[in-house]
Amino acid sequence: MLAIQSQGQTLLDTLSLKEQKTFKSLAAASVHPDSVFKLDLSKQKHKVVPEEIRNFKNLQVLKLSRNRLKEIPEWIGELKNLQVLDVSYNKLKAIPDSISNCTQLIHLGLNRNVIETLPHTIGRLEFLEVIELWDNEIIALPEEIKHLHNLKTLELRGILFSQEEQEQIYNLLPETNVFFSPSCNCKN
Prior knowledge:
Distance between the termini: 54 Å
Number of strands: 10
Helix content: 10-25%
Oligomer: single chain
CATH topology: Leucine-rich repeat, LRR (right-handed beta-alpha superhelix)
Number of domains: 1
Strand content: 15-25%
Largest sheet: 8 strands, parallel
Structural class: alpha/beta
Shape: globular
């Protein structure tokens, strides 16, 4: 197991992380909070992100998809080792600026929400490889996304962008696979 330890926290490599148990309940996870690397609370009808998650200092995969979340709390930035965050299929309108403190983030799943824009701080997530935003209400992306040099995939299908807007995004991320629905002039 390859792991990096700092300030009492353990960061696992991808292979070691795959071998970890996925906790599916807060009660089970809370028994040994330092052993929780993966937590999947999908499809549990949560209206808010449970505060207890803050106790899992080694948490690296957090799945909260298909709940009833309307916001992600600012304290999400305390989860410094988070590599995967999936909050798709909720009712989120925004992502907090503090997401930039999750400096190990590789995968950000935001599909099927009502998000209009990403925070400008998104450009600080230097390890981010995938952002899934399909079927949101994105009006514009912050120019800071151009700093995401490791970004491999940006999923924007189901969002109506004009040809000009699509070209601007391609220009910001020339090395990224960006997926759009056909362009339109719907926003005029």
